[in-house]
Amino acid sequence: MPLLELQQLKKYFASQKAVDDISLTVEKGQIFGLLGPNGAGKTTLIRMITGIFYPDEGQIIFDGKKFDPVKDVGYIGYMPEERGLYKKMKIGEQAMYLAQLKGLSRSDAQARIKEWFVKFEMESWWNKKVEDLSKGMSQKLQFVTTILHRPKLVILDEPFSGLDPVNSNLIKDEIFKLAQNGSTIIFSTHRMEQVEEICNHIVLVNKGKKILDGTVTQVKQEFKENLFRIGSSEVIPALNGNAPFEILNSGKANAIVRIQEGKTPNDVLQYLISQNVAIHSFQEILPTLNDIFIRLVESSPAARQFQSI
What we know:
This protein is α/β, with parallel strands linked by helices. It is built from eleven helices and 14 strands. The strands form three sheets. The protein has a six-stranded mixed beta sheet. It has a four-stranded antiparallel beta sheet with strand order 2-1-4-5, with helices on one face. The protein has a four-stranded antiparallel beta sheet with strand order 12-13-11-14, covered by helices on one side.
């Protein structure tokens, strides 16, 4: 049973359709990428999932039943892109306050805070104020307060913003551990390389509509262009009329080729062997999620064509 289902959600602001008939499913334990350009409807979707906004049409199913914003919000941890920490409050007191708001007893909250502060090397921060922290330090604190109550659903909006590579890896490792321990993660970011590395499944929204829905592997396979990189110790000779590919770029060390429609990688290899070309590598080139993102967002006909994979 999925943890979260959105069924034909719609949300309007005046004449603007912020979310226009979006349906999607998030499985338990999944790291789910929610992607889209600025103004696409991502934030409105997240605010409906967290009970901040009510949908104008459609419904949300949470853990097998209709979403109840009052009861179910306690099972959700939300780290918004616009941070919500109290700048004048001491860090230890703030962590305690937010943990108890999520239903933890004072003793449980203190034990969990201590555990996370030790893990993230934050023990000396207890009496500091948020306004004294760097952006990266604030980010670590925000992450800790988001997951202290061990939520079923964790929503992370740009969680790596302001973090150095070491702390980015620290947070990334904890995201993987959360998923392994049963939490479901919705991950929203503009950094496509992070999505490729972290997410199992992605949805792309644009202008309030869902235009792409599938696993990372499915999406990259759907948009591949029959491109291959051939590594060779020599320049590939001029092609004859029987060649099953065209050369897009060629040098002494490697060449980029596109296989003709109806031909296979084996056809390419057989042709090259017949031409006495010494091959030491042969690799398919798949598009990056960044390439796919740009192509779909900038091309509305393509977006309509690939509305569902």
